[in-house]
Amino acid sequence: MSALYLDDLTPGDAWTGAPIAVEEADVVRFAREFDAQPMHIDPQAAAIGRFGGLIASGWHVAALVMRDFIANNPFGDTPLLGIGVDELRWLKPVRPGDTLIARREIVAVRRSASKPQLGTVTMRTTVTDQQGDMVMSMINLMQFPTRPM
């Protein structure tokens, strides 16, 4: 896909990523390295804990969603720069065996007044599981180039 630029984007533009399978081995591996809490790494302890079983770290879910974004490459060859995340919410536990779908929607597009070759894109991401229940949401801000002259 060729590059998309700030000028090509409109609030309301939306797309859905590929299905994301959540595997138990990956849940445990990620958590052992980055979020080593019993509910993420120990099936026996997790079974008697408040979630009644093993759940993925929210950071793991966010990383899976980021990998999906990069793999699906919705903006083509455009050089992007993430500059912030707001309102990151983990709304429902994600469990091994779940399949997630990320939907992204452009909320705002703004050209910079001080750097007219750049602008910002505000994007809302919602992630649902196989039942259609929302498990994560966030709003992120990206720096985006305008079309070269």
From TrEMBL:
Domain of life: Bacteria
Protein name per the record: MaoC family dehydratase
Organism of this sequence: Sphingomonas populi
Domain (MaoC-like): residue spans on this chain: 18-126
Gene3D superfamilies documented for this protein: Hotdog Thioesterase
